[in-house]
Amino acid sequence: MQHKVSVKERVVASAKRLFSERGFHRTAMADLALDAQVSVGAIYRSFASKADIIRDIIRADTDGTLDELRANISAVRSGTTRGHDAIEQMVLEWASPQQDDALYHEIVAEAHRSPEVAQMVTSTCGEFRELLRELATLLKPGLTQAEVEGVAELLLACLFGMGNREFTAPTLSPEQTAAIVTRILLQGVRAE
Which residue from 18, 82, 97, 104 has the fewest beta carbons nearer than 10 Å? Predict the structure, then answer.
């Protein structure tokens, strides 16, 4: 049986594409309606504002990544995956070009303008930070709370920084970057 795509799903898919291409402020609700093949009224019945659409985009894009991170942490905790491998895979994913990179930049830019979007980004980062703290304690038990926070901050900075990698003319491949960044990070955590 084929899944019927809901109005919300169609609008979110269209919004991702149009916001990436044009930006939030240059995408009118009429453009979204046309692209999603729904009425403007149908959009407003599903979403109160563009910020609500952005919220659904953020959730759709981060839920899978958060689930992956949770699974990796669980595997490290159970001993089926080394912490090194979990971090290297995470950095590799962040360092590799993503289809939605332009959308990511648009969301971050909008967070600087809109307190509502800023709160969404802050909340999402809080979810990542909580998981990264847990990963830090698995990497090196006995870290102080400040050290755990420092490792989480560094990993979160990698998340944001690697998303900008395409503009820095990198000389290393994503794979090389992931291997080297992971090695240096783990050397720093284990150095003392």
Answer: 97
Q: Which CATH architecture has domain 57-190?
A: Orthogonal Bundle (1.10)
For residue range 13-57, what is the model confidence (pLDDT) as tens digits? 999 999 989 988 899 999 999 999 999 999 999 999 888 999 999
pTM confidence score: 0.83
* Chain segment 169-192, per-residue pLDDT in tens: 899 999 999 999 999 988 877 644
Which CATH superfamily includes the segment(s) 1-47?
Answer: Homeodomain-like (1.10.10.60)
Residue extent(s) of CATH 1.10.357 domains in the chain = 57-190
Torsion of CA 173, 92, 127, 130, to 10 degrees: -110
CATH code 1.10.10.60 region(s) in the chain: 1-47
Helix axes 145-162, 174-190, angle to 10 degrees: 170
